[in-house]
Amino acid sequence: MTKALIVIDVQNDFCPGGALAVAGGDEIVGGISALMADFDAVILTQDWHPAGHLSFASSHDGQDPMSVIQMPYGPQVLWPDHCIQGSDGAAFHKDLRTDGDLIIRKGFNTTIDSYSAFFENDHTTPTGLEGYLRTRGIDELTMVGLAFDFCVNYSAVDAAKLGFKVTVREELCRAIDFDGSFSAARAGMTDVGVTLV
Ligand code: VGL
Ligand code: ZN
């Protein structure tokens, strides 16, 4: 087995003080950095939106952050502006080791959100990560990062459906927990064979 650690969106905007702060988001950074030495490959993801991204409430007249609208690809939570390309908020937390093998950016298409590291939210448009992992012979993935119930969840479910053996280390994740999303994420991951530890 060739094993990769996938570190999801450990960026300033998802940490306390950031635009879409996840409670305790900064508490996991040291543990994630320390875990990297145990893997054959380390891949970091970065939420990377252009200004005016359609997942932002500010892009829709009269919509408040955390409301939900219908997009062509399904329901979309409208977020505060976050992880704008090149901003401090989009940068990795300063204590995160960033000397991994690959940094994959997602959410850069204005009209579609991308929670998963594998597919945009239409569940069809690929990011290229699957091909990268397969051509390197990587078959076992451990996922950590932010947020447990959105980007970690979507990435883990897609990876399991693609046939990777997937483990999520819950102590190295933190959740947004919006409208039951935490328990829904746990159930959804378990259903497709993701191991939660
Ligand atoms: C995320 C909401 C919006 C995440 C990204 O990284 O979980 N959540 N964009
Ligand atoms: Zn985002």
Question: Layout of SSEs?
Answer:
Blueprint: E1 3-8, H1 29-35, E2 41-47, E3 68-71, E4 74-77, E5 102-106, H2 129-135, E6 140-146, H3 148-161, E7 165-174, H4 181-191, E8 195-196
The structure holds pyrazine-2-carboxylic acid and zinc ion.
Task: Report the major sheet.
Answer: 6 strands, parallel
N-to-C CA distance: 19 Å
The overall average pLDDT, rounded, is 98
- Helix/strand-derived category reads alpha/beta
Provide the succession of SSEs.
EHEEEEHEHEHE
Shape: globular
Bound ligands, each once:
pyrazine-2-carboxylic acid, zinc ion
Helix content: 10-25%
Radius of gyration from the alpha-carbon trace, in angstroms: 16 Å
Low-confidence stretches: none
DSSP summary, beta strand count: 8
Strand content: 15-25%
Order of strands across the main sheet: 5-2-1-6-7-8
Given the structure, what is the number of helices? 4
Oligomerization status of the protein chains: single chain
Description:
The radius of gyration is 16 Å and the shape is globular. Strands 5-2-1-6-7-8 form a 6-stranded parallel sheet. Strands 3-4 form a two-stranded antiparallel sheet. The protein is 20% helix and 23% strand. The protein has 197 residues and is an alpha/beta fold. The chain is built from 4 helices and 8 strands; from the N terminus they run E-H-E-E-E-E-H-E-H-E-H-E. The chain has helices at 29-35, 129-135, 148-161, 181-191, and strands at 3-8, 41-47, 68-71, 74-77, 102-106, 140-146, 165-174, 195-196. Helix 4 (181-191) links the parallel strand 7 (165-174) and strand 8. The structure holds pyrazine-2-carboxylic acid and zinc ion (ZN). Pyrazine-2-carboxylic acid binds next to helix 3.
